[in-house]
Amino acid sequence: LQNDEVIMQVRNEYLGDVSTLSKETELTKKGLKMLGLIVKKKQMLQSELKYYFKGEIYAYVTELKKLGYITSEKYKNTRLLKPTKKFAESFQLPVQQ
Question: What's the domain count of the chain?
Answer without folding.
Answer: 1
